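Lab manual, section 2.4: Encoding a predicted structure.

Procedure: take the sequence of the chain (106 residues), apply the prediction step described in section 2.3, and record the output as C-alpha cells. A sample record is shown.
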Amino acid sequence: MLYEEDSLWERAKSLLVSWGWVIGFVSLSFFSYAHASKKKQENYRELKERVGELLKIKEEAIALREELCLEIQSQSDPKWIELTLMKGLGLVPKGKKKVLFDKEAQ
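Recorded output:
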C-alpha cells in the first residue's frame, strides 16, 4: 500500500512538473492580457475626454470665425464705422451728448 501511495505521489509530482510550465505560461499570458486590457480602457477613456475637449474648442473657433467674417463684411457699412468709433475711441456723433459717470463719487 505504501508503494502505491509513493507511486501516486511520484505520478502527481511528475505531472505537476511536466504541466507546470504550461500552467505558468497560461497564467502569465492571462495576467498580461488583463493588464493590457485595463491599460487600453484607460487610454480609451482619456482619448474620449480629449476628443470632447477638442470638439468644444472647435465649436468656439467656428463661432469666433463666423463673428469675424460678419465683422469683416460689415466694415464698409457707415453705421458699423460709427459704432466702432463710439466704442473704441469714445467719440460721440454730432448732436448727441456724452455722459460720464465718476466711479469715485459712487
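Check your result against the sample. The chain has a mean pLDDT of 85.
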